[in-house]
Amino acid sequence: MSTTETILQTEGLTKTFKVGFWGRHVTVLEGLNLNVQRGEVFGFLGPNGAGKTTTIKILMGLIYPTGGRATVLGRPVGDSRAKDRVGFLPESPYFYDYLTAVEFLRFYGHLFSLRGAALENRVTELLDLVGMSHASNMQLRKFSKGMLQRVGIAQALINDPELIVLDEPMSGLDPVGRKEIRDLILRLKERGKTIFFSSHILHDAELLCDRVAIILKGRMVACGHVSELVGQGATQSVEMVVEGLSSEGLEHLQPLTEKLLIKGNQVLIVLRNQQQVGNALEIVRVAKGSVVSVTPQKGSLEELFIREVKGTQSSLREGQ
């Protein structure tokens, strides 16, 4: 029997806005169906303007949908009993920057009726969790972007939520900052938290997520386990690096290759498929070369994303 529990769900979620002087209707979301299970890291992916932030604002009860429905922790969005169990960090949040990290977290703790020793212990615990204990009494205006993101996540955890919603948590961070946030998300998963985050940085999602959904122009175009989605776009090609290969050996390898690059004594060979590896290795052996590495080239979320974007663009052109 399955023990999975749905913690966030949308059914046919639709949102239109009126824009311009004449009030023209623009559809930002169209029939969005999502299902997030307890304990998973779920990536909500798409380019800027795809509808990710609009979806999150609906889920957090900040705006209302035009059609469809959404539930969080089994309750309609906006229900205060669900909100008490959710942590949220919006994209590009604004914090009063003359507060210190401790004062900032105390303020949010008071919003959840935390007081006294319980609040002080929670603040200390969270600053330690996000790696900000050393800056606990530093004003936020002196924080880097990565430090602000980490203390922002600490704010989202002040009520010990079951579901944590992060809107573009790694946007604008340098590689070090992105790694820090990735590590923090993984620590939260280890603690049994459910994390729903939006991003347009596909590499981070591939490293972190159990499942992802890809949204384009307000429509979901792919959803599933990362391994399944990546498998759909796997290239099946293989990279080989070979040393000391004779010109005759190169000539025999040429028909098998998709790309061949010579650099000094080494040759990078990209084979069209895995079935050609045996033949290539035999050619290298006969030509008295040596194999440095053989690396299968798996598919990636980036490949899937690009393919879906191109498909969507083609569909839109055909519909014009």
As for the CATH topology of the domain at 6-85 and 161-232, it is: Rossmann fold
Overall mean confidence score, pLDDT: 87
Share of helical residues: 25-40%
Indicate the proportion of strand residues. 25-35%
How large is the count of helical segments?
11
Total beta strands: 14
Supply the CATH architecture of the domain at 6-85 and 161-232.
Answer: 3-Layer(aba) Sandwich
Q: Which of globular, elongated, flat, extended, rod-shaped describes the shape? A: globular
Based on helices, strands and strand pairing, what is the structural class? alpha/beta
Could you give the order of the helices and strands? EEEHEEHEHHHEHEHEEHEHEEHEH
Separation, N- and C-terminal Cα atoms: 48 Å
Q: Segments where pLDDT lies below 50 for 5+ residues?
A: none
Strand line-up in the sheet with most strands: 6-7-8-3-9-10
CATH class value of the domain at 6-85 and 161-232? Alpha Beta
Major sheet details = 6 strands, mixed
CATH superfamily of the domain at 6-85 and 161-232: P-loop containing nucleotide triphosphate hydrolases
Radius of gyration based on Cα positions:
25 Å
Salient structural properties:
single chain; 320 residues; alpha/beta; Rossmann fold; Alpha-Beta Plaits; 6-stranded mixed beta sheet; 4-stranded antiparallel beta sheet; 11 helices; 36% helix; globular
Explain what this protein looks like in three dimensions:
The chain has 320 residues and is α/β, with parallel strands linked by helices. Helices cover 36% and strands 30% of the residues. It contains eleven helices and 14 strands. It has helices spanning 52-59, 80-83, 101-111, 116-129, 145-156, 175-190, 202-208, 226-232, 247-253, 277-286, 301-319; strands spanning 6-19, 24-37, 41-45, 67-72, 75-76, 86-89, 163-167, 194-199, 211-216, 219-225, 237-243, 257-263, 266-271, 290-297. The strands form three sheets. It has a six-stranded mixed β-sheet with strand order 6-7-8-3-9-10, with helices on both faces. A four-stranded antiparallel β-sheet has the order 2-1-4-5. Strands 12-13-11-14 form a four-stranded antiparallel β-sheet, covered by helices on one side. Helix 6 (175-190) links the parallel strand 7 and strand 8 (194-199).
